[in-house]
Every structure is written in C-alpha cells, then in structure tokens.
UniProtKB/TrEMBL annotation, chain A:
Electron transfer flavoprotein alpha/beta-subunit N-terminal domain location: 23-214
Species name: Desulfopila aestuarii DSM 18488
The family this protein is said to belong to: Belongs to the ETF beta-subunit/FixA family.
Keywords: Electron transport, Transport
Superkingdom of origin: Bacteria
Family annotation (Gene3D superfamilies): HUPs (3.40.50.620)
Designated name of the protein: Electron transfer flavoprotein subunit beta
Cited Pfam families: ETF
TrEMBL record, chain B:
The enzyme's E.C. designation: 1.3.8.10
Keywords for the protein's UniProt record, in alphabetical order: FAD, Flavoprotein, Oxidoreductase
Record's subunit section: Homotetramer.
Gene Ontology MF terms in the entry: acyl-CoA dehydrogenase activity; flavin adenine dinucleotide binding
Protein name, as recorded: Cyclohex-1-ene-1-carbonyl-CoA dehydrogenase
Cofactor (UniProt): FAD
Family, similarity comment: Belongs to the acyl-CoA dehydrogenase family.
PANTHER family named in the record: ACYL-COA DEHYDROGENASE
Span of domain Acyl-CoA dehydrogenase/oxidase C-terminal: 231-379
Keyword Oxidoreductase: yes
Ranges where the Acyl-CoA oxidase/dehydrogenase middle domain occurs: 123-219
Coiled-coil stretches noted in the UniProt entry, renumbered to this chain: none
C-alpha cells in the first residue's frame, strides 16, 4: 500500500501578526513555525493506517523553502517513511489551485492508495487544497473527517456536518480524505524515532518541475478588521441595572423576542 | 563554533515542550500542594517518549542522543515542573549513569538497560547525616561476608527514594583507610531484605518529588553488586556528580526560564497608571537583566553538555554551569515574584512555586560553595 500525507508549515497561532510590506500576506519574520494543526491529525491517521496494514510506504509532502524541512522531520519522527520536499521560496504566494496542482502533479502515476491532508491550513484557511487534489487526480474525496477506518480497500469515514450531525461515508480507495479536529490525538515523536528520522530519505524537488497550472485568483490586499468600540459597562443600583439590561436586550438583540 | 541546535535537538525541544505544557503543567500546582509524586506521568510517560535513557547507547536500551538533548529535556520539563525535571535528572545522571560509566558489561545489561528503558527507576545514595559536602565522612559500612557484603547504615535526602527500584549506594569497605580511600559503590535493589525506607522529607520546594531516607540493617548483597573497584567509590561518586551537575544546572535553567516567561507575560497584561507595566522602564530593565542572565546560564549549561558529549573534561565547566544556573534561577524567580507583586505571592500563580523550587538547586548535588571549591581548586592546582 502507498500512502501520501500533505502537510504545511504555519506560524504558531499565538504569534503577533503583521501585514507584510507588499500588503497581500503576513510578515513572516520573527515567527515561530510549526505543523498545521489539521495536518497533524492527517499524519497521525496516515501512520495509524500504515501500522494497521503493515506492508505500507508512507510519504510526507510539503511545499516551501528549506525551512519547511524542520516540520517534515517531525512527520518523519512520527512515523512517515520518506519525505518529498517541493522546494519553493514563494510558496506563501501560491493560491490553493496552484498548491493543489503541484501536489496532484507529484502524486499522479505514483499509485497512492490513500492521500491524507488537513481540512484547511491555519494561516490561509481556504479549505480547498485537499478536495482540489482529488478532483485533479479524478479521485473521490471525503472532507472534514472525524473518524477513519480501512478494511480491504474500503475507507469508512465519519464526516462532521453543521450542528454536530455526523455522516458515515464509504468510499473505495484510491481516495483523498481531509482531516478535522477530533479525528485523533497526534502522538509525540519519541526520542528514538527522532534519532531515526535523520536517516530517512528527504528529497527536494524544484517546484518548477511540478507547477503546470496557472493561478486563478489573487489576493488584492490583506488587512486587520477595523477595531470596534469596547463593551458597554453599566453602573448603578442592581434593580435599575436589571431594567436597563432588559431594555437593551429587547432593543438590540433577539434573545427576548 | 556554531551556537545553533541541531535538527534533532530542535525536534526534541519541541516535543518535550509540548508534552510538558500539555500534560505536566496542568497538575504541577496540585502535585506541589499535596506533595504527590505521580509515577505514571512523571516517569512512565517519560519512558514512553524515550527520555529515561536519552544519552545511553541503543544496545543498553537508550536513545543514543547527546548531552545537550538531555539538558534540553530536563530544562523543558523544569520550565513547568521542577519536580518532574529532577525526577529525570536523578534517575538518569545519578541512578543510571554510574552503571554506564563504571559497570561491567554484565552489570550494564542487568541494571542499566531496564533503567534506560524506564522499566525501572534509579536513585543515588551518598549523603548521610554526617556526610554531605564531605563524602569522606561516609559511615555506612559494607563488611565482607560469605560470597557478598553485609551493609549497615543510613542515607538521607535521597531523591526518588522509595519510588526507585535501583539504588547506587556508597559504603565504607575499609575502615582503616584514609577518608576517601576506603569507600566502595554498590548497586542495591529495592526489596532486598534489610533495605527499608525511613522518613519522607517535608520540603520547601520540589514537593512533588519524593525525598526519602534509606535504611540498611544487615542488608546482604551479592559480591557482583559492587560497582567499580573496591575502594574506588569516591571516584565513582565524583565522576557521577560531574554529570549530575549538568542535570541540576538544566533544571535550574528551566526554572529560571519559566519564571522569566511568567514575568514577561504578566508585565504585558498588567495595567497600572493606564499602561501595561512592561512599558515602564523600571520593569523593562528588570526583565532585560533576567533574560540576559538566563541566556548566559543557558550557554554555560549547553557548553558543559557539549563537552560531556565530546568526551573532553567538563568537571570545571559543569561546576560553573551549575553555580551560574542555580544562582540565576534563585534571582530570576525572586524577581518574577516581585514583578507579579501581590499576585506573585499567591499560589494562584506559579512563580512562588518556582522561587521555592529554585532554592534547592543552590544546595543539592554540590552546594554553590562546593562548586566554588571545585572551580577554585581547578584554577589553582
């Protein structure tokens, strides 16, 4: 069995973000970087599948500068067998159609049985890449999965829908799944596995070899939302406060209607 | 010379930090208040992550990483819980390392491998009521009997005491020899008849780490339990403590970093006179000094660890690193309490615990005064 998991390196979301000088993305200086949260679920599930079937080869793919290799090493230490690094210093500027195009071009003809991605990245958050890869490879896809099972070529996944409803979906491999919070608890890479990770194959492929599609959209500009006024602080006697609160709730909200 | 972590060291830092923040930190206050050692969390989980044998070769159940990785692991654990940090340090540096350094091949397979894999926990019994900084004052005796040794005496202030399965114990085997020469090292396992535990210490800090008395009453051990040569126990103890200092220096570094982080976060949030207090130069200068001291300590700790990994002498460097890091921990934690003011003095915030925890790093595994003796005598030899 051949498995592919696609990951992205994103800034730690606790970081203080600034819009970069050219105005279409955040300034990537002085940030701490880590694996996109949803991709961690994807890696964990891919490793579990590999452990379940035994005879499997698991490739982790990431697009970006040399820096993304640090995050790929974590995926290797978690249990991926080999890494495919698509070298692209301008990856931040690629829109989802191009990113999916690069991944699809890499995966085409390699015979992956299951492709795992996160359901979205924490920084761009388009939620498009996984399903676009499936479309480009003419594979079925199941998005936002919160449970994953595999039995003799059939994937049985649970999807999360609005309002807490879940749907059980069966699909034949090969297929693409995009992973949502709640799917699993990603393992810590153990020390012996961290030591082994450095001996695993990590090939770099220039992005020019794989980028065959053009951008279909462009970010015009990026900005912080305007700051809204602070909250309303009411002061006075308790009885009077309650009356004022009720009238505000009646006038400005629907909770008492 | 390159001051940069390797990829593995970076991954190890990320992994241990994430584990420490998510799993160790949440119970740190409760464990401190109840003086509760959580074996599963503070040792079992470390074993699963491969931390209990970081520096030992794979053939003895270790992970084959270097001393900087070990320092980073103890530092990151101690950043959120100094008790967990010292559990690892005492187990690895004091319990397991002497077997690696002085054990025969057979002893390594018998005792080191289960320790490195974390199946068993290690501890070290040197200190006695009459022998602390002066290890030559050891009164515990081991007298030859049949095919082994009969051990009698008491060891005090033993970290991991009661919980550990494997103890390195020092006893006088030659009463006629000069102070340091008649001492030998032994491996004594929990459960050996005649080996029991005395009182558990009630401490100011590292309250979640058990500190117990070891009592030996006619405890018979086989002769193959001697570690190193007869009469060379003092050498075993001193070599072990050289490495132990790196562990405690890392623990102190972690406490200092934790206190600094808490102080910076608080200073950014806390508003007085309509401004976050971090905007006041009086606070900024304090934070700057704290951060500078922590960074200096870190470079010294990593330098000592680097030398240990390279196999070059590091006794003086580890003494300097331990002295610097422990005094930095005490200073920085005290300042952090000051910056947090009234809140810092409450148990609601972790800095008062860090201040209590920091103090022991100036005392155990060689007091600051002993470190100065080590450094001073190396300078004037």
């Amino acid at each position: 069995m051949k498995i592919l998991v696609c990951i992205k390196q994103v800034p730690d979301m606790e970081s203080k973000f600034k819009v970069a000088a050219e105005g279409t993305w955040y300034d990537n200086q002085d940030l701490a970087w880590r694996m996109n949260e949803y991709d961690e679920y994807a890696v964990e599930q891919a490793v579990r599948l590999k452990e379940q079937v035994g005879d499997a080869d698991l490739t982790v793919l990431s697009i970006g500068s040399d820096k993304v290799k640090e995050t790929m090493k974590k995926a290797l230490a978690m249990g991926c067998d080999r890494g495919a690094h698509i070298a692209d210093d301008a990856a931040w500027n690629k829109e989802p159609f191009q990113v999916a195009g690069i991944i699809a071009e890499y995966a085409r003809d390699k015979g992956f049985d299951v492709i795992f991605t996160g359901m979205q990245s924490q920084d761009r958050g388009s939620g498009q890449v996984g399903v676009l890869v499936a479309e480009m490879l003419e594979l079925p896809s199941v998005s936002t999965i919160v449970d994953f099972g595999y039995e003799a070529g059939t994937i049985i996944a649970k999807r999360e829908l609005e309002g807490g409803i879940k749907a059980k979906v069966k699909v034949q491999a090969p297929a693409v799944v995009t992973c949502q919070l709640g799917l699993n608890t990603p393992r810590y890479p153990t020390l012996p596995n961290i030591m082994k990770a450095k001996k695993k194959e990590l090939l770099s492929i220039p992005v020019a070899e794989l980028l065959k599609v053009n951008a279909r959209m462009e970010t015009a500009n990026m900005f912080f939302p305007e700051k809204k006024g602070g909250g309303l602080v009411l002061e006075g006697e308790a009885g009077e406060l309650a009356d004022r609160l009720i009238s505000i709730l009646k006038d400005k909200t629907t909770v008492l209607k | 010379m390159i001051f940069e972590l390797t990829e593995e060291q970076g991954l190890i830092r990320d992994m241990v930090r994430e584990f420490a923040e998510k799993e160790v930190a949440p119970s740190a206050r409760e464990r401190d208040e109840n003086e509760r050692f959580d074996r599963e969390l503070m040792f079992g989980r470390l074993a699963e992550l491969g931390l209990t044998g970081i520096v030992f070769p794979e053939e003895y159940g270790g992970a084959g990483a270097d001393y900087i990785s070990y320092a980073i692991a103890v530092e990151e654990l101690s950043r959120v819980c100094a008790s967990t940090g010292v559990t690892l340090s005492a187990h690895l540096s004091l319990g397991a390392n002497p077997i690696y350094l002085f054990g025969t091949e057979e002893q390594k397979h018998k005792w080191l491998a289960p320790l490195a894999k974390g199946e068993k926990m290690g501890a070290f019994g040197l200190t006695e009521p009459s022998a602390g900084s002066d290890a030559g004052g050891t009164r515990t005796t081991a007298v030859p009997e049949g095919d082994g040794w009969r051990v009698n005496g008491t060891k005090i202030f033993i970290t991991n005491g009661g919980e550990a399965e494997t103890y390195i114990v020092f006893a006088r085997t030659d009463r006629t020899a000069e102070k340091h020469h008649g001492i030998s090292a032994f491996v004594i396992e929990k459960g050996t008849p005649g080996f029991s535990f005395g009182k558990k210490e009630e401490k100011m800090g590292i309250r979640s780490s058990p500190t117990m008395e070891l009592v030996f009453e006619n405890c018979l051990i086989p002769k193959e339990n001697m570690l190193g040569k007869e009469g060379e126990g003092f050498k075993v103890a001193m070599k072990t403590l050289d490495g132990g200092r790196i562990g405690i220096a890392s623990q102190a570094l972690g406490i200092a970093q934790g206190a600094l982080d808490a102080a910076v976060n608080y200073a950014k949030e806390r508003k007085q006179f309509d401004s976050p207090i971090c905007r006041f130069q009086g606070i900024q200068f304090q934070l700057a000094d704290m951060a500078t001291q922590v960074e200096a300590a870190r470079l010294m700790v990593y330098n000592a660890a680097y030398r240990a990994s390279k196999g070059v002498s590091y006794s003086q460097q580890s003494a300097m690193a331990k002295l610097m890091a422990s005094e930095t921990a005490m200073k920085v934690a005290t300042q952090a309490v000051q910056i947090l003011g009234g809140y810092g003095y409450t148990r609601e915030f972790p800095v008062e615990r860090m201040m209590r925890d920091a103090k022991i790093t100036e005392i155990y595994e060689g007091t600051s005064e002993v470190q100065r003796i080590v450094i001073g005598s190396a300078l004037t030899r």
